[in-house]
Amino acid sequence: MRRLILTFLCIAAAPLLASDNALLPFSEAEVAQILTHGPWPPEQQRDPSNRVSGQAAAIDLGERLFFDTRLSRNNDRACATCHVPERSFTDGQKRAVGIDVGDRNTPTLMNPRLQRWYGHDGAADSLWSQSLLPMLNPRELGSEPQKIAEVVRRDADFACRYEKAFGAVPPADDEAVMVNMGKALAAFQETLVSERTAFDDFRDALARGDRVAAGQYPQAAQRGLKIFIGKGACITCHVGPNFTHGEFADVGTPFFLAGGGVDPGRHGGIKRLLASKFNLLGRYNDDTSGAAATSTAHVSLEHRNFGEFKVPTLRNLKFSAPYMHDGGMATLQDVVRHYSELKEERLHADGTNILKPLHLSAREEADMVAFLESLTNYTVKWRTRSPHEGPACRPGVSAAAVPAN
Amino acid sequence: MRRAGLLAACLLAGAAGAQTCEQPPAGAARAESPRFVLYYKPEPAIVLNKHFGLRVLVCPKAPVAGPLQLRVDARMPAHQHGMNYKPKVAATAPGQYQADGLLFHMPGRWELMFEVEAAGRSDKLAARVDL
What are the strands of the beta sheet with B81-82, ordered from one edge? Predict the structure, then answer.
């Protein structure tokens, strides 16, 4: 009798004991939404505006330039100074620190090929033109075309690598050389694809109908995901495999600058973009079809763009704290609470009607954080390196070289 | 005489688009206003967060004096915002237009908005697209 009672108790308790390792019920519509966040990694496509996109010699040169402090005015800062490989190419600072302290948080460089616009305000429409901005910004690296071009002219090893990538020695035109260096930097950055995460395994298990494998995904993250695609409506802006539509939004974060004035956000970004000779409507775009410039040709400047900043990816967030365009939120808990307690009066009056305070319970907030954390892969496979690491370049144009611009 | 009649029929059909209006493009969707029927076909197909164009055919229900002008835009009524891009519309033939540069960046209900101006008046037509 006693054995019978014990057996009955064990069977009754089994669902509770196994509750941390089981698939929650997801409707057909929910599953369909979840599947849109993959597969990962996505198919990588070359950038048609950059003729050395995907080219090994350009990637090698770009990686070396990324770590080279000679790209800065005082030879003391490189791209990697703020975009630290071991920190998912961010710096852990509230605001970027170049020659001067900047107004905005250092964004991650992960998965750049999936972006349409670059920078918090989208002032660049290509990865290679974005790579030029920090070099030329007096508050970041503070350099100029002549000094930048000298890095590949005066350094025999770099001159050799430049020739391998672009099919000719650096020409006399400093600006053209600088643009090519931007294209090499972009070719390297395109290789920064984040690894698969626990969420990706869950998503793929759902796709193939493997309930057992899907049930391995932590239940807190499953509950958080339900909020994300349900009452949170986060999927409105954080769409697709990279968890962002790549456009801009006003989410009620402050846009007053430390030194006074207002950060114009996307509004200023569009104006800078259209005024730039490095945009895709200009002569440095290698895409002769014109397709790559479609977004730039049609982008619309609206009053509501004031105070809008780019919707970031949610991948690898654990590495990219603090958060928001100004680094104003230290933790993911702070971010989730911001949306839970959203102050609607801080949103623009002529803005969109999307965000509402979510009024999450403490448990729901914890579940959302658990879900967001499941979008991080904790493997760190990139490392800081010396620009002149490895064997020296051997002169002679490679078979993969392309005609000079 | 017979050849002249055939030629006249072709010219009339070309000028008024009557032949095309009677046989709109396969797969085209339809919108209607008091004065016009409008057919539109996305090319390429509308995919979330990708640029697309529209082939548009404007068919007057009765003869309209003067040229037609077409404007195209889109918005999300529930979110109270439009696209982040301004389409460019070009006439490709009488009553036929190509609109390029549209992009729907969010999932949900969009409303395509067409405005046809003719003889000093504008007709507004709308079509729903659910992404």
Answer: B81-82, B69-76, B109-118, B121-130
Count of the separate structural domains present in chain A: 2
pTM reported for the whole predicted model = 0.90
- Which DSSP helix (H) or strand (E) runs through A369? helix A362-373
Do A65 and A32 share a domain, yes or no?
Answer: no
- pLDDT for B110-126, tens place per residue? 999 999 999 999 999 99
Q: Kindly identify which residue of chain A lies nearest to residue B85, measuring between CA atoms.
A: A299
Residue A235 resides in a domain: yes
Report CB contact under 8 Å: B105, A353.
no
Q: Of the candidates B51, B79, B88, which has its C-beta nearest A353's C-beta?
A: B79
Q: Which residues of chain B neighbour A235 with C-beta distances below 8 Å?
A: 107
Within a domain: A109: yes
The answer to whether residue A45 neighbours chain B at the CB level (below 8 Å) is no
Residue B124 neighbours by CB under 8 Å, 6+ apart: B33, B113, B114, B115
Q: In chain A, which residues have pLDDT < 70?
A: 1-20, 349-351, 396-405
| CA atoms of A396 and B65, how far apart (whole Å) | 69
- Which of A166, A189, A212 is the last residue in one of the domains? A189
